[in-house]
Structure formats: structure tokens, C-alpha cells
Write a structure and sequence with these properties.
389 residues, alpha/beta
Length: 389
């Protein structure tokens, strides 16, 4: 005799797919919104057969100069090249000293080394992470030829007091504005207050090319003319070279892309500012050091960086939950092997060193949705609770 088992089958099991990971930056989402305009612009450049400099670069230079409030914009092939040429055009050379900060991407100090000068470091402010003005005058010597502050993470340095020092002592200020497109200090565009301002258009920047590109802005007609010459093999006319020049020209495809993207920069900046404000409000009760926006300026939130002494544990735990993070920057310049010859040691710049040990960049990009930010905040709360347990 067969006895029924009475097993009741409820149908096939349904597995819920995990939500897609949240990247630190979503360039693909930005491209999809611009695809038709970009494709048309690239087709026009290809059809013109003008691939280096040319009308599309000139159009972008004019538009970017107007956007930041500068008299001149000189497009080049990278932000590093922009810094290099700015130092040359300012008269910095072998044996000179340039005051800058160790909490930056290393290109800031590469450029100083390229011209044969010596980077002289001062620490950064513990709240803004930009150059600590109170330390600058003590580092000035008879060989100081420039002050090079960095507008880190999208926040302008304290340009007012720095320019006062520079003007009083006859030392030009060169702004590293690579992360500060559209930022403002006391109503004026970042990059336009010093002798020159240097921008990077690396793809991940607030205004990013589809490859490498950069620019220098200035109000000085003489410096602008020399920069245009230097970037193009120092040609006063075709095949006539007046000094040692460089092949630092911006290509036309990048000029066309940047010209299109510049039209959207203000809207993207406002989106970044809204997201940053939401982070600041929603993370205020957590045991993190949050970034600040100093008075009298406009932060453009290229990066949203928090500090925590267990940074690496937090990053690992967030990664398992599908949350991308970044490190900007885990080794300050004065402790890089490439600059060991400067003689700095661990402990020389404690604020920069603490930032490097504890910094963690959270996802923030203009296309970020409210639900994506919810997931980041919820995951961060969860991993911090686990640490307390």
C-alpha cells in the first residue's frame, strides 16, 4: 500500500538579486545624458580634419575664461602641463623655491621639480585642508619665487591672506585649481585671483574631458602670449622657435567635448552642492570628521572626504555592501619616495599626515539619486555601529 506523504510544494524559490553597487563616480551615467551632442561634436571635428588646437579649442578657451571670470584661457594637454607652464611663465627656475602643501596630488610638486625649483612645504588647515596661511611667512626666504596653494577637494584656499603676503613681499601666487572648476572666493572665480590659475580636465574632474586636458587662466596679456607660445613648441611663427618649448597642445576632440560639457557645469555643481549638504546633515551625528565649507567662498565638492581612525575597516565593510569609496590621498607628498631628497620626515606635517591616514572619499556625483545616497548613509551607519559593538 502506498501512503501519501502530504508534502506541499510552494513553487520554485525566488532569489532576490542584490542592488547594483554604487560607484565612487559614475561617468557612464553622465555620458548617456550627453551622447547625441558629443557624437555630433566629434563628427564635426573629424569632418574638419583639424585635430590639434583649432576653432573648437579656441571656442572652449573663450567660454571657459568667461565662466571663471578671466581675461585669457590657454588650453593644454593636462593639468600637470598647466602647472609646469605657469611656473615657467612666472619666472620660476633652477635654484628657486616654491611654497606649497604636502596634502595634494603629486602633480603639484612634479611641476615645481620640472623647472628645477625646490618645493617648500607648509601644513594644511585642520578644518579646510587647504594651505595654513599662518605658516607661510616663516618659510619665505630670499629664494622664494612663488606661493602655490591647492584648492583641495573643490574648496578654495584662503586666497585673501595669501595674496596679501604675496603682494607685500613681491611673490606671485599661482593657484592649483585642478579640483575647483566653478569654485569662488569672495565672489571671484577660483584660478583668477593669483598671477595664474591651473585647471585639470582629467575625466573624473567636475569638468572632465574624454582623455587628458588642462588649462591655465590669467589676466596678464604678456603671460598669456608666452603660454600660448610655450605650449606649441615656443613658435613665434611656423618653424621659428624663440626658446625651449613644449608639445602641450590641447587636441580638438577634447576642446569640443569640454565646450559641450561646460554648458552643464553650473547645473552639475548645484547638484553636487545639494548632495554634499544632505551628507552633512545626515552624517552629523556619526563619529566622523566631516568636511567644512569655509566662509566667503563657494565649495564645488569635487570630492566629499570624511576622516575616521579606522578608515580601512570602514572601506572594507562598505565594499562588501556594494559601496565604492576612494582615497585622496593616502601618502602625503613629503613622505613619497620620489621626494625623499627634500629631507622631510614622518611627523613634520601632522595635519596632512592625519588626513592621509584617515581620509575616505564617499560617492558623490551629479547623477547620484536620492536612493543611492540613502544606501550610502545607511551602510555607513551600519558599519559604524558594528565597530562600536
Amino acid at each position: 500500500m502506498t501512503i501519501a506523504t502530504g508534502i506541499i510544494r510552494s513553487g520554485p524559490e525566488v532569489s532576490l538579486a542584490p542592488p547594483p553597487p554604487i560607484p565612487l563616480l559614475d561617468l557612464k551615467a553622465q555620458y548617456l545624458g550627453l551622447r547625441d551632442e558629443i557624437s555630433q561634436a566629434l563628427h564635426e571635428v573629424a569632418s574638419s580634419s583639424t585635430y590639434v588646437l583649432g576653432p573648437r579649442v579656441q571656442e572652449f578657451e573663450k567660454a571657459f575664461a568667461a565662466h571663471v571670470g578671466a581675461r585669457h584661457c590657454i588650453g593644454v594637454n593636462s593639468g600637470t602641463s598647466a602647472l609646469h607652464l605657469a611656473l615657467i611663465a612666472t619666472g620660476v627656475g633652477p635654484g628657486d623655491e616654491v611654497i606649497t602643501v604636502p596634502m595634494t596630488f603629486i602633480a603639484t610638486t612634479w611641476a615645481i621639480s620640472y623647472v628645477g625649483a625646490t618645493p617648500v612645504m607648509v601644513d594644511v588647515d585642520p578644518l579646510t585642508y587647504t594651505m595654513d596661511v599662518a605658516q607661510v611667512e616663516a618659510k619665505i626666504t630670499s629664494r622664494t619665487r612663488a606661493i602655490l596653494p591647492v584648492h583641495l577637494y573643490g574648496q578654495p584656499a584662503a586666497l585673501g591672506p595669501l595674496l596679501e603676503i604675496g603682494n607685500r613681499l613681491g611673490i606671485p601666487v599661482i593657484e592649483d585649481a585642478a579640483q575647483a572648476h566653478g569654485a569662488r572666493y569672495r565672489g571671484r572665480g577660483a584660478g583668477t585671483l593669483g598671477r595664474t590659475g591651473c585647471f585639470s580636465f582629467y575625466p573624473g574632474k567636475n569638468l572632465g574631458a574624454y582623455g587628458e586636458a588642462g588649462a591655465i587662466v590669467t589676466h596678464d596679456d604678456r603671460i598669456a602670449a608666452r603660454l600660448r607660445s610655450l605650449r606649441d613648441h615656443a613658435q613665434s611663427q611656423r618653424y621659428h622657435h624663440d626658446e625651449i618649448g613644449f608639445n602641450y597642445r590641447m587636441d580638438a576632440f577634447q576642446g569640443a567635448i569640454l565646450g559641450i560639457k561646460l554648458r552643464y557645469l553650473e547645473a552639475w555643481t548645484e547638484a553636487r552642492r545639494r548632495l554634499a549638504a544632505a551628507y552633512l546633515e545626515r552624517l552629523a551625528d556619526l563619529p566622523l570628521q566631516l568636511p567644512t565649507e569655509a566662509r566667503d567662498l563657494r565649495h564645488v565638492w569635487h570630492l566629499f572626504v570624511v576622516l575616521h581612525p579606522e578608515r580601512d575597516r570602514l572601506r572594507d565593510a562598505l565594499e562588501t555592501r556594494g559601496i565604492g569609496t576612494g582615497l585622496h590621498y593616502p601618502v602625503p607628498v613629503h613622505l613619497q619616495k620620489a621626494f625623499a631628497h627634500l629631507g622631510y620626515r614622518d611627523g613634520d606635517f601632522p595635519v596632512s599626515e592625519r588626513i592621509a591616514r584617515e581620509c575616505m572619499t564617499l560617492p558623490l556625483f551629479p547623477e547620484m539619486t536620492e536612493s543611492q545616497q540613502d544606501r550610502v548613509v545607511d551602510a555607513l551607519r551600519e558599519v559604524l555601529r558594528e565597530g562600536r559593538r
